[in-house]
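Hi R.,

As promised on Friday, here is the backbone we talked about, encoded as structure tokens. Could you run it through your design pipeline when you get a chance and send me back a sequence?
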């Protein structure tokens, strides 16, 4: 286990004082404000971190020690970039831009100290109200202070596609447990519009010659608790689209505060390697600092992906 140092709070820059301007959601996906710009590849192999769900247990609490340790380790080991899987802030408060901007400012100041590019797929805490219903005000603030709601970028032999699984659904669209969206705060939304699905199809067609495609999002297609998964129609549509392409290597998600491998649900200590052309691997990594789920896989961690030509080797790094 590597030893970690905690990031200090002195000398923080004010990232959110000058909000970012949201770009066209068709990409390229912007790195988060204050983080390093992505540089051209120098070698055919590269490494990236992936993690999600670092938000504190309540709005009045500061960033967790866990997320500080992950970002400190990134500053030490220097991955090429970090893929974040959402819930970067506690959020869920469309009544106070001051509160939300302060939460984004805290996270982005910490993220900047990792000294690597960071790309995020938004979660329900960034995009919803207190009842866990997608909210247009929260979504506009995400674009103002963070980045596009979805987009893509290319690095080396790989393409990376961020999806927004927190879109506002039309009335009557079922949630993953089969109840309609709009008012039941005990259910998570998770919805991807046809517009975004069409965009995903076009992106995969554009990236057909890449060795690997990594899709990352907040709500997962497969979850250890089915009620935490993306709504059935959206999940099925994503699976149908990616089935047309042989180069989709991983679908990475979070939302559940644990590690989960749907291909081997009982294995919570190893992440499977992947060879180009194999069926896509689904992984859930939501252990970046939010209160943990109980049961198998419920521990703090992040993932390290090593991309070597046609082979991708991920590793789980526990955080204590």
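Update: got your reply. Pasting your designed sequence below so it's all in one thread:
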């Amino acid at each position: 286990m590597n030893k970690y140092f905690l990031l200090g709070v002195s000398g923080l820059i004010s990232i959110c004082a000058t909000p970012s301007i949201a770009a066209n959601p068709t990409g390229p996906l912007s790195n988060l404000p204050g983080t390093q710009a992505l540089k051209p590849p120098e070698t055919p192999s590269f490494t990236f971190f992936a993690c999600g769900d670092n938000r504190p247990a309540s709005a009045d609490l500061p960033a967790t020690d866990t997320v500080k340790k992950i970002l400190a380790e990134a500053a030490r080991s220097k991955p090429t970039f970090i893929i974040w899987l959402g819930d970067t802030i506690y959020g869920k408060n469309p009544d106070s831009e001051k509160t939300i901007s302060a939460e984004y400012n805290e996270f982005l100041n910490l993220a900047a100290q990792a000294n690597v590019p960071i790309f995020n797929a938004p979660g329900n805490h960034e995009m919803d109200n207190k009842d866990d219903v997608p909210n247009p005000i929260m979504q506009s603030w995400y674009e103002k202070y963070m980045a596009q709601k979805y987009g893509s970028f290319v690095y080396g032999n790989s393409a990376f596609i961020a999806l927004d699984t927190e879109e506002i659904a039309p009335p009557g669209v079922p949630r993953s447990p089969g109840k309609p969206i709009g008012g039941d705060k005990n259910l998570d939304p998770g919805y991807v519009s046809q517009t975004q699905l069409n965009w995903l199809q076009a992106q995969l067609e554009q990236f057909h010659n890449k060795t690997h495609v990594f899709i990352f999002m907040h709500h997962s297609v497969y979850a250890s608790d089915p009620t935490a998964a993306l709504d059935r129609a959206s999940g099925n549509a994503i699976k149908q689209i990616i089935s047309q392409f042989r180069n989709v290597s991983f679908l990475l998600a979070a939302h559940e505060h644990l590690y989960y491998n749907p291909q081997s649900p009982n294995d919570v200590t190893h992440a499977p390697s992947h060879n180009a052309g194999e069926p896509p691997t689904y992984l859930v990594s939501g252990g970046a600092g939010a209160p943990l789920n109980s049961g198998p896989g419920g521990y703090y961690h992040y993932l390290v992906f090593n991309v070597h030509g046609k082979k991708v080797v991920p590793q789980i790094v526990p955080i204590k």
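One thing I noticed while checking it: The two ends are 9 Å apart (CA to CA).

Thanks again,
M.
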